[in-house]
Amino acid sequence: MTVDSRRTDTRERALAVALELFAQQGYSVTSLREIAERLGVTKAALYFHFRTKEEILTAILRGYLDGIAALVAEAEAEPRSPERQERLLRRYAAHQEQWGSDLALLVRQNATEIHDLPIAAEIKEVMQSVITVVAPPGATAAQRLRVRTALTTFQVAALSALRDDEGDEAELREAALALALELVRGETAG
Amino acid sequence: MTVDSRRTDTRERALAVALELFAQQGYSVTSLREIAERLGVTKAALYFHFRTKEEILTAILRGYLDGIAALVAEAEAEPRSPERQERLLRRYAAHQEQWGSDLALLVRQNATEIHDLPIAAEIKEVMQSVITVVAPPGATAAQRLRVRTALTTFQVAALSALRDDEGDEAELREAALALALELVRGETAG
DNA sequence: GTCTATATATGGATAGAC
DNA sequence: GTCTATCCATATATAGAC
Questions:
Q1: CA A60 to CA B1: how far, in whole Å?
Q2: Closest residue, by C-alpha, to the C1' of D11
Q3: Which residue is closest, via its CA, to the C1' of D5?
């Protein structure tokens, strides 16, 4: 075997474990000890891969954010039209699905902690650009509220899917997309 | 003066301070020391009024929850109709406004911590009954998603109001109510 | 890359005086 | 009702061996 017995993918595994724990328990409640235990290493080992606890959270957000930024860049290359609007929403929904409900939970439940990170400004900027692409130029506050609500629909669906009595995940995802489309299409009415 | 120089309203003031800090920083990040400092007392003084930190959080949620439960009870006393549905939503919006954006933030940002409290079951039950009153009996998952989204609209608006570039609070509140009504009215289409 | 051991800080909570 | 002082658990982070 060319692979050393010592693990060399600890960093990636740590990010996966941290994502799950940060999402389900919260960032500040989750200790490095807990993450290390799940990985089968010690706290000190984690400090070889990350300089601080915040760096772990930042690394998780990095990949997710880059994905959204790519969606926006694609959309901005196309001419403004209802079709472009719809395509972006579908890509956004697919992106959310790909990253799973854990990341939606992570962002929602650790908003304050994330707000203090250097990456926060970038997140705000990117989400702003998502809204700008979907909402018409010079949109009113009410119209922008429709777009914001449309984007949160996927989060609401992801959270509902965690309940036993709200239907299966696929069904909810489909419903969320339909609802989001309805919201942005009706935006001239806002 | 019949009022003793020693404060006798520390409990209420503590709840107000805790609400603000829990909402803006998060429950687990906020220490009792910090709450005590803002009140001008020591940690030990807080323990005269509350047995644990969790009891503070629970006490905050208590008043809010009782308010919603009262709304539901009122609605359940009326016969099912589109008017009843709309009345409940308007009362719900007014209740959210009365409690302010801090409580919306508190619930949203400390969902996991709240989930572990004894009062969590009660909260889930009450929110469930809100949905049951608004959604038609035997509603599909998609229809219930519309109702859930309608209720979160007020939160989205409250959060948007905290931004400088999203219009003033009153404007957003009005838009949120209109959007929520649109969502529940169109529910047979879901 | 990972370990043991430790420095250092802070948290929730309690005891007992006033 | 509030204080000082303290217990105890746990946290982040580092030092240095392997």
A1: 59
A2: A31
A3: B44
Q: Indicate the Cα dihedral angle B62, B67, B69, B72, nearest 10°.
A: -170
Question: Rounded distance, CA B170 to CA A47, Å?
Answer: 48
Any strand C atom closer than 7 Å to A167 CB: no
Q: Which residue has the tokens 């359940």?
A: B76
Residue A52 approaches strand D within 7 Å at CB: yes
- Helices B141-161 and B169-185, interaxial angle, to 10°? 180
> How far is B87 from B119, CA to CA, in rounded Å?
27
pLDDT per residue as tens digits for the range A53-100: 999 999 999 999 999 999 999 999 999 999 999 999 999 999 999 998
Strand C nucleotides, any atom under 7 Å to a protein CB: 1-5, 10-16
Q: What is the CATH number of domain B5-185?
A: 1.10.357.10
Q: Where are the domains of chain B?
A: 5-185
CA dihedral A66, A71, A72, A73 (to 10 degrees): 80
Residue range A150-181, pLDDT digits in tens: 999 999 999 899 887 888 999 999 999 999 99
How far is A178 from chain B, CA to nearest CA, in Å? Answer: 9
- Nearest residue to A54 (alpha-carbon basis) of A7, A100, A104, A120: A120
Nearest CA-CA partner of B154 in B126, B137, B140, B174: B174
Closest to B140 (Cα-Cα) out of A170, A182, A175: A175
Q: What is the DSSP letter of B53?
A: H
- CA B98 – CA B95 distance, rounded (Å): 5
Quote the CA–CA distance of A152 and A148 in Å, as a whole number: 6
Nearest to B129 by CA among B72, B77, B83: B72
DSSP state letter for B190? -
Residue (of A179, A60, A14) closest to B182 by Cα position: A179
pTM across the whole model: 0.91
Cβ distance B160 to A148 less than 8 Å, yes or no, reads: yes
- Tens digits of residue pLDDT in A6-48: 567 999 999 999 999 999 999 999 999 999 999 999 999 999 9
Q: Give whole-number Cα distances, B17 to A44, A113, B23, B37, B95, in Å.
A: 38, 19, 10, 10, 20
At residue B37's C-alpha, the angle toward residues B96 and B48, to 5°, is 80
- Distance of alpha carbon A151 from alpha carbon A180, whole angstroms: 7
